[in-house]
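INTERNAL TRANSFER SHEET
From: sequence group
To: structure group
Subject: Nitroreductase family protein

Please process the attached sequence and return the structure record in the designated field. Keep the field labels unchanged so the import script can parse them.
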Amino acid sequence: MISSNSQSKVAQFRQPTYEIDPVFVNRWSPRSFSEKEVPEEVLLSLFEAARWAPSAFNVQPWRFIIARSQEAREQFHSFIGEFNLTWCKKAPAFALIISKVTSEHGDNRSHAFDTGAAWGSLSLEAVHKGLITHPMTGIDFDKAREVLQIPDDYAINALVAIGYQGEKDALPEALQQREQPSPRRPLEESIFEGSFGQPLK
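Return from structure group:
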């Protein structure tokens, strides 16, 4: 459960225009991770939340390759980009999100869309459990496929670091300045009505 103190810190940077559940604004992507291990039942509850995401024809194209032992994490470190490795090395768990690009119906054009819904559910459940997540695409996709023996009919979507939030001061100085929730553009800039580029009436 996210603390009221954390919520008040997020509120300095994020204010929704319309009333929504606080979990949506309290979810952000810190880079400072504590080395504290995540209990199995807590970690797996995130994937339980992802399990119930919607998908076309209920195909459920998402799969998660997780790393939570020291040996497995080091294997993942081998394909993480140098910049990302500077801050995510302490994360106690990783999940590589992949999605099956085919189904019994042929090419699955919604595999990434549906898997995005599963990732969204995972990230929100993490907030409920007092955890942080930080997704990244700064990885060597080809090496990840080779190291983890991922079949060609699965797309690699992103790698997510999972754990408890650490202190901002533990980050390199340049990253400390960025360790805060990011804002969002005004809602009306994301919605068109009737056709592309037409503002709400």
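Handover comment: The chain has a mean pLDDT of 95. Strands lie at 62-67, 93-100, 102-103, 106-107, 132-136, 154-163.
Transfer complete.
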